[in-house]
Write a structure and sequence with these properties.
The chain folds into 2 domains: about 1-150 and about 280-285, Ribosomal Protein S5, domain 2 (2-Layer Sandwich); about 155-275, Alpha-Beta Plaits (2-Layer Sandwich), CATH 3.30.70.890. The protein is globular and about 55 Å long. With about 290 residues, it is an alpha+beta fold. The longest helix has 19 residues, at about 180-195. It has helices at about 55-65, 85-100, 110-120, 120-130, 165-170, 180-195, 200-210, 215-220, 225-235, 255-270; strands spanning about 1-10, 15-35, 40, 70-75, 135-140, 140-150, 155-160, 240, 250-255, 275, 285. Helix 1 packs across helix 2. The chain starts with a strand and ends with a strand. Helices cover about 40% and strands about 25% of the residues.
């Protein structure tokens, strides 16, 4: 059995802690034979546990404490600490592992609820479960969310070599905003969502680049954001915004302009990884 979970990008600019989009990078978990103790094989480095302390196994045991240990093999294209939902993918993989091995028969809604309990809000985990675009909120321990198809566009990701932990990126955010600033930030987010639902990426992109919730505060940690935004705008991109907490930058562009923009981004920093991705429409999948 194989479990496949997509990467996710959160926020889309002003959709802070609310919007998430599934992308075609994957965590793949092969579930192999039963063993005396949990073993998870991977090549991701010493910082990722190989035993039952791995997040995937911890999550599975949280849902089904009596699971029989197995040997697992994990491969992952999602870079850690880059704002592409690596931790959410691991949590969702653990939920799928428990669901399959313990025959829990969880609904997708239950999977989102469990994942959001662990992660704190549904913006990354919901699209990892459901695929495509999800707009959600966690209110009084209840998750509210809507899944929608994202407009057709080329999606480029600029992934710097350096990591940026979410905790460090959140530490620079203010504790409060003035009422006036909050109203403006909310209005920008509302127009962005409405434009996406109308397949108007030109307008949506304008709103993505006018975020008031987080990007201006995080810009000192990711100085390349404004430089990439200016560069790609000149080449005809719809928008550039932080992916999650950063440092990855997400660029939406018309298909016909993607190749030129991709080449320019590769010249901008030859130590970074630049990829052309698509929206993952299915979310987590089980392959038997």
């Amino acid at each position: 059995m194989q479990i496949r979970v997509p990467a996710t990008t959160a926020n889309l600019g002003p959709g802070f802690d609310s919007c998430g989009l599934a992308l075609t990078l994957y965590l793949v978990l092969d579930v192999l034979e039963e063993t005396d103790e949990w073993i998870i094989e991977h090549t991701l480095g010493a910082g990722i546990p190989n035993d039952a302390s791995n997040v995937i196994i911890e999550t599975a045991l949280r849902l089904a404490p009596d699971l029989v240990p197995h040997r697992l093999k994990m491969t992952c294209d999602i870079p850690p600490a880059r704002g592409l939902g690596s931790s959410s993918a691991a949590v969702v993989a653990g939920i799928e592992l428990a669901d399959q091995l313990a025959n829990l028969a969880l609904t997708k809604q239950e999977k989102v609820r469990f994942a959001a309990e662990i992660e704190g809000h549904p913006d990354n985990v919901a699209p990892a479960v459901l695929g495509n675009l999800v707009v959600g909120a966690k209110l009084d321990d209840t998750d509210f969310y809507v899944r929608h198809l994202f407009p057709d566009a080329a999606i480029l990701v600029f992934i710097p070599q350096a990591e940026l932990l979410t905790a460090d990126s959140r530490a620079v955010l203010p504790d409060q905003l003035s009422y006036k600033d909050a109203v403006q930030a909310s209005a920008i987010a509302n127009v962005m969502i409405a434009a996406v639902l109308q397949n108007d990426l030109k307008l949506a992109g304008q709103m993505m680049e006018r975020d008031r919730w987080h990007e201006s505060y995080r810009s000192r940690l990711v100085p390349h954001l404004n430089e990439i935004r200016e560069q790609t705008r000149k080449l005809g991109a719809y928008a550039a915004c932080l992916s999650g907490a950063g440092p990855t930058v997400l660029i939406f562009t018309p298909h016909e302009k993607a190749a030129k923009i991709l080449a320019e981004l590769q010249h901008y920093d030859d130590t970074a990884t630049v990829l052309r991705l698509e929206v993952d429409g299915s979310g987590a999948r089980i392959i038997k």
